[in-house]
Amino acid sequence: MAILELSNISKHFGAIQAVNDVSFSLEAGEVVGLMGDNGAGKSTLVKMIAGNFLPSEGSMRMEGQSLVMHRPVDARRHGIEIVHQDLALCNNLTAAANVYLGREIHRWFGPLRVLDYGTMYRRAGEIFAELKSETRPRDLIRNMSGGQRQAVAIARTRLSEAKLVLMDEPTAAISVRQVAEVLSLIQRLRDQGVTVVLISHRMPDVFSVADRVIVLRRGRKVADKLIANSSPEEVTGLITGAIEKV
């Protein structure tokens, strides 16, 4: 059974048709590259999956059940997490504090409620170990590399045991070494049975970790192919319009 199914999804803002009649399914434990030029509809589509927008038309199903979401917390409740391009981390806090941001664990001492730092540090450390990341729970975000910051953002999705993780340009503006680290993190999510949608403009990244690639152009899906049956040249042609559709 597919983790997520989109059927004839469309989204318009007044006269602007951002996404037009898009259908596809996502299987458990696969990495799918979502590609397209600026304005192709990628962000709008992802925001519908993440609960930010309601589709104007069409339907979504999660593990066979109808899925209607009015806000991001609804998506999280269904096991859908998003790692934004800006990561939304607090530089003055530790890695563990960022993992638990908004989901802190408390203990009661009589009438007093205090943060249970010990439990949060311990669990965050376990998640970083599962991801084989060098990030340490007590490290401050301000002192971290781009790859380590991505590890913290990804650890947040593991805390909630997400089934589907949407990653928006995770390798933008980081070094080659850090790109390799982030791609390894994506592979480890897949190995743990998590489905990952990788939104990216970087062709080498998609072709190195994705099982499948979906291409949007002007709001329409123009390709949904196994990586093994495609090529960077073909995907570039689909993105630019040199190739109409496959």
Automatic annotation (TrEMBL):
It comes from the Bacteria. Keywords: ATP-binding, Nucleotide-binding, Sugar transport, Transport. GO terms for molecular function: ATP binding; ATP hydrolysis activity. Gene3D superfamilies: P-loop containing nucleotide triphosphate hydrolases (3.40.50.300). InterPro entries: AAA+_ATPase (IPR003593), ABC_carbohydrate_import_ATPase (IPR050107), ABC_transporter-like_ATP-bd (IPR003439), P-loop_NTPase (IPR027417). Residues 4-243 form the ABC transporter domain. Pfam families: ABC_tran (PF00005). SMART domains: AAA. The keyword ATP-binding applies. This is ABC transporter ATP-binding protein. The lineage of its organism: Bacteria, Pseudomonadati, Pseudomonadota, Alphaproteobacteria, Hyphomicrobiales.
